[in-house]
């Protein structure tokens, strides 16, 4: 019993520490060489070095991109030198041996902010650019995607409440489960109670939502962001294990009591 309580504490501490170090972990897994190329490539676009820019375009993109289009994209960057340039998004996919990376940078200028994105793929000769995007924004992504409670939809508030209440319900059920006499394999019940199944997810910035029928969440909820400037995705699951436990708890106790009485009876008979 004492070991089970220790395990419970360790699980909670692990969840807390992992959430605290998310930004550090995301930076650690950003490919340095590829992201540096993407950053330099966007700098060449901002500096209107179109010969360099077009030299790395994939054949498909090169057929569509003209100097006029590149000039329009370069003009989307705000005037002056950037005060800071930060990578806020990094996605890498490898499918059938083909590497592809998607890197997003945030630029801060005196007059405002820019987002710029480069999509790369690797070839035998180096890199090919298969996508470029430049946007102007009113504020930093960290500010735009900051977690706040004002001006949210009813669905967002509902999912947030569930994301708070479901873990509390699972935690309470877990404690009761640990204290409940169960005849066999209590650890299976503990694992079952710990997880939520299925999920409803909501983007906390824009309110977009999605349902996931096939998913499993420890403690039945999560709140994650892909990076320091990315929107929070709040998710809540059905605490199926906890619900089934409460439906079966009475029968589990009765079965354990009968087993104890039978063991006591057998012990008395043998004596």
Automatic annotation (TrEMBL):
Family annotation (PROSITE patterns): PROKAR_LIPOPROTEIN
Transmembrane segments: 157-178, 187-209, 229-247
UniProt keyword list: Membrane, Transmembrane, Transmembrane helix
Name of the protein: Lipoprotein
